[in-house]
Amino acid sequence: MKRVLYIIALVAGGLFSQNLMAQEVVKLDQTTGEFTQQELTLKAGETYVFEVTNSGVDHEVGFVVAPKGQTDQEHHIPEAYLAKTITDGETASSQQVTLEKGEYVYFCPLNPTPQYSLIVE
Known about the structure:
Blueprint: H1 2-21, E1 23-31, E2 34-35, E3 39-42, E4 47-54, E5 64-67, E6 91-93, E7 97-98, E8 102-107, E9 116-120
Parallel strand pairs: 1-4, 3-9
Antiparallel strand pairs: 1-2, 4-6, 4-7, 5-8, 8-9
């Protein structure tokens, strides 16, 4: 019985590790009034984590992803929110996000920044 539990634990651990390795980190920097990366193209069905750094903004910043033309809070992709708002010099990450093919925008509602193009092919 111990051997069976050990094998199950190994398989589950391997699947968990593969899931963590399957994600890609998208690193973004926010400066006063803008993101330095002003458009993104990602692949549909892939898993991403957004990592945002506050680079010189003197107040807290955040991160939003929403379908293009539907930027009201009810349409935000909640998994893309940062774990916390960040102050100058801090970095925070989103949860894992998998987007369907389409056009999205990303922006900071606190900075505020323009809405930048995020294309998922």
